[in-house]
Amino acid sequence: MRIIPQTRPFSNRSNTVTPLKGLALLALTACVMAASPALAHTGEGMTGGFLSGLLHPIFGWDHVVAMVAVGLWGAVLGSPAIWILPITFPLVMALGAALGIAGIPVPFIEAGIALSGVVLGLLVLFLVRAPVVVAGVLVAFFAVFHGYAHGTELPTAANPFAYAIGFVIATGLLHGVGIGLGALNGLAWGKPAIRVGGAIIALVGTAFLTGIA
């Protein structure tokens, strides 16, 4: 008779975002985002294209709330969604940007961007625990609209590749903000705070969808 040694169950503690880690992530993201405007003097060439791309998502609240919501919803869902969603969104967004730069028509861009805030905000508000595949497909769908908008607004003199790198990094930072906020879930008052955040995101998306914002 073969004796099969018992193994210790896998622990996913390394994938857990604690409140302390979340605050550190928020602080790092805030420092990078605060320093970016001081560096952006031109939209020309490699450097200017990168900075233009870096700042483009940050200065549009319709982009900001949706991208924060992606990270926040990923944190609510936990592993593996906490890293799958923030990876899926920028990758698909880059493809959407390529469509925009190429001038390939995609309908309802502004409505799709605004709707992403509404839907993702509601998912956070009600702490919806969707399967990771469903969550990934939904996030990828909305990413196309955000990416297309970035692509169509490429500055004339900017380097497209540098511009794309810039907005992908900015998107990752905004996802990081959402993940950091998701760390509040470990606190006694964290879950209600997260739900309030989801409600705010949904309201901002609604404002853009209805033309108020």
From TrEMBL:
Record-linked InterPro entries: HupE_UreJ
TM helices/strands, residue ranges: 50-75, 82-102, 108-127, 132-149, 161-181, 193-212
Name of the protein this chain belongs to: Hydrogenase/urease accessory protein
Record keywords, A-Z: Membrane, Signal, Transmembrane, Transmembrane helix
Origin: domain of life: Bacteria
Signal peptide span: 1-40
Pfam families in UniProt: HupE_UreJ
